[in-house]
Structures are given as C-alpha cells and as structure tokens.
TrEMBL record:
Superkingdom: Bacteria
Any one GO molecular function term: acyltransferase activity, transferring groups other than amino-acyl groups
Source organism phylogeny: Bacteria, Pseudomonadati, Pseudomonadota, Alphaproteobacteria, Sphingomonadales
Protein name from the UniProt record: GNAT family N-acetyltransferase
Keywords: Transferase
PROSITE patterns (alphabetical): GNAT
N-acetyltransferase domain sequence ranges: 11-165
Native source species: Sphingorhabdus contaminans
Keyword Transmembrane helix: no
Transmembrane segments: none
Pfam families: Acetyltransf_3
Amino acid sequence: MTAPTLRTERLVLRQLVLDDAAALFPILSDDTVMHYWSSGPHRHEDETREYLQWNADPDCGHHCWAITFTGEKALGWVILIPRRTGNFELGYILAREFWGQGLATEAISAALDFAFRTLKLRRVMADTDPENNGSIALLRKLGFRQEGHLRAEWETHIGVRDSLIFGLLQSEWRSSTG
C-alpha cells in the first residue's frame, strides 16, 4: 500500500522510493546517526539501496514516508509497521543536520495523525536504546509512555543492547493534540 502524501507546515511526507538511496546514503553512513541503529553505518550507496528495498516496497503492508521539504530530496523517513490488529510500530530517522529543529516531531506527528485518525489504530509502539536520550525525549514529547525494558534484546554493531518499549494509545493522542 503506497503511503499517502502528508503535508505539514514545513514538510512534505511522500512514499519512500529506491531512488532516495542517493540522498539517504550520507545519513545512513553517519556514525552519529547510526550509533543506536540496529545495524552499523553504511559504507556504500549500494548497501543503502539494498537496505531500502523493504522500506520502499509499497506491497509489504507498511507505510513508509520520505521526510522532505518539497517532496523531492529525502531528509530521512518515518515508518509505520503493522505488528498486530490495531497495533503498529513506529520507526524514524533524520539527517543529523536537521536535529533540534522540530522536524522529527512535525513528521512523526503527521504519521501519528494518519495512524490514529485514518487507520483508526488503537496503539502505536516504538523501541529505542536506553542510552538514546534524543529519541527518548522525542517519544516522551509526543506523548509516548515507557511500558517496558527488554534486557539484551538487540545484537547490534555496538554490542548486545537493551531496548526500552514506548507506547501511545489513540485516546492519549487525541487528548494531547485536540
């Protein structure tokens, strides 16, 4: 299912496509951006293209938006992945040069509006590394609550890592956004 185009005050979120690999390679090869990611920094654009195969496939049952200013160059992405009936997982990545400008909050908010208002989900969850303070702060700002701490959950390029599980219910999103 192709992700519908979503517009915010500053952003256009559109379906992620394989041709976004060139724009996303510098992001996915950035050691700082990828530090808490489940895989290490990419070394070649072909690796990014291969990584995007599933994310960009509109027939895999998820919604994956490229975060852009104008609908053209991807600055990152937001993805909603079905886990159970009424329950999707949120994922996101953004170029480091745009951190701290509210763009991730804006993009994820648009995806959450779509999730709760259009898809009528009851819950969206996210997981993050316990040391990823930026992601934890972003999720809390969006109204997510920490629901769990999974020990030794991920084996990553920086070793075996714990995972914090955050959840947001439809009723909580409505009350936080009006």
